[in-house]
């Protein structure tokens, strides 16, 4: 992709708040509102922005605990990643699923209402032959 410094600035600003107007972007980037909107449309068209989502308030979702779970997998089946993507992708608690390097193979970002709800989730979904085990980190505070 052929992106210049203005494109990179717009992308960084959109990552923090995708609801910004052309005028708000223009104030921060140093271009006209129309130029910012044209660039934004181009960035969407070329696939630099793949999707825009809404981050919901915990008060609305009732999900007050964010958990980062690492899953090491038993090797052997080439279709395993696709299977896990389909399986975990259907679960409302799963916000992100990453295939990673290191000791773990998958990292899940989950949101649950309570630790008891997470314990139930883990018991139902992490007890598969393909999963060696799991390690959980609880997010104490979101800093950015």
Explain what this protein looks like in three dimensions.
The chain has 144 residues and is of the alpha+beta class. The protein has two domains: 41 residues, Orthogonal Bundle (Arc Repressor Mutant, subunit A); 81 residues, Lrp/AsnC effector binding domain/regulation of amino acid metabolism (RAM) domain (Alpha-Beta Plaits, 2-Layer Sandwich), CATH 3.30.70.920. The chain has six helices and four strands, in the order ααααβαββαβ. It has a four-stranded antiparallel sheet. The protein is elongated.
Write the layout of secondary structure elements.
Layout: H1 5-16, H2 22-29, H3 33-45, H4 58-61, E1 65-71, H5 80-89, E2 94-99, E3 106-112, H6 115-125, E4 135-138
Antiparallel strand pairs: 1-3, 1-4, 2-3
Helix pairs in contact: 2-3
